Amino acid sequence: MTEYDVVRVFCAPNGGYGNELGVVREGSVMPERSERQAFAAKLGFSETVFVDDPERGIIDIYTPTLRLPFAGHPCVGTAWLLDVPELVTQAGLVGARLDGEFSWIEARAEWVPERTLRRYGSAAEVDALEVPPPGEWIYAWAWEDEAAGRVRARAFPGRDDGIAEDEATGAAALLLTDQLGRALNITQGKGSQILTAPQPMGWVEVGGRVFLER
Predict the structure, then answer these.
(1) Do 140 and 131 contact (CB within 8 A), yes or no?
(2) Eight-class DSSP state of 28
(3) Residue 97 CA from chain centroid, whole number
(4) Identical fold between 5-106 and 111-204
(5) What GO molecular function annotations does the UniProt record carry, in alphabetical order (predicted)?
């Protein structure tokens, strides 16, 4: 059996919640894309990362059904696990840093695969949503406290791969931050926390707590 780590990314202040991520540190044991895709499907996490060079931070990201050029929670979790200053993804170079209890990455909105950002009138409306049928990738959100930048969100990938709702999605949070042009404190899913902040020249920082599960 191929060895892999499991981390939870964007955890709540008490260490709960967060989105599980599988990380295969020795990506060389599974070099073919078809092998990696099959293994990601077998694990069943929303994303699985294969590390091709741990020192340079070269990574390859997969959902259970497709390869991604960039994804938020895989980059945050892998940067924390490898303790590197940057990651090399198919989309581009992702900056990384640790700041106390938070692990941060810096990336660009144009790297994010297509998402529909759907605003609702209240957090209660977001909480009451039923999971939509497979189709478009929907990030449902509402202000909890607009003045404070506090957002309630849920993510529905719209894929028929067993992931009906994503607990915490850094890429969608990045896209929303870029659209709104302000720092956000997002509560997503059942209780995960995502922090964001726009940066100069079109960059956005996304951060959260990461815990090693096994």
Answers:
(1) no
(2) G
(3) 16
(4) yes
(5) catalytic activity
- What lies within 8 Å, CB to CB, of 190 at 6+ separation is 17, 167
Give yes or no for a contact between 39 and 30, defined as CB atoms under 8 angstroms apart: yes
The distance between the two most distant Cα atoms of the chain, rounded to a whole number of Å, is 50
CB contact burial 136-147 (16+ within 10 A = b; e otherwise): ebbbbbbbbeee
What is the chain's pLDDT, residue by residue, as a tens digit (214 residues)? Answer: 789 999 999 999 999 999 999 999 999 999 999 999 999 999 999 999 999 999 999 999 999 999 999 999 999 999 999 999 999 999 999 999 999 999 999 999 999 988 999 999 999 999 999 999 888 999 999 999 999 999 999 999 988 788 899 999 999 999 999 999 999 999 999 999 999 999 999 999 999 999 999 8
Pick the CATH number of 111-204 from 3.60.40.10, 3.10.310.10, 3.30.390.10, 3.30.70.100: 3.10.310.10
CATH 3.10.310.10 applies to domain 5-106: yes
Going from N- to C-terminal start, the domains of the chain cover: 5-106, 111-204
* Residue 162 burial (CB count, 10 A): 10
